[in-house]
Amino acid sequence: MINVFEVPEGRLSETISAWEAARDYLEEQPGYVSTELHRALAEDARFALVNVAIWRSVDDFMAASRAMAENDLFPEVEGLGVNPALYRVIEGAE
């Protein structure tokens, strides 16, 4: 799963805290493997943060995401744009 974040000005710290809360919940869910949050080097980057998470299966990810949403566990950040999508690796360096 890759999720790119459009972070409103002045909301970076709040967004990172929200991501940490979600991570803390999701890492305890069945099928979770790992996650990394990346911060753009350029201050004017459209996507200030990019989250890359690895899950054992699509079903595990979907179940955990549903549970998180149903329990309202991702703190709201005013103006934050999130764009999660599932991807499959098709090429990579060893």
Automatic annotation (TrEMBL):
InterPro entries given in the database record: ABM_dom, Dimeric_a/b-barrel
Alphabetized Pfam families for the sequence: ABM
Organism listed in the record: [Roseibacterium] beibuensis
Protein name as catalogued: ABM domain-containing protein
Ranges where the ABM domain occurs: 2-64
Entry's transmembrane regions: none
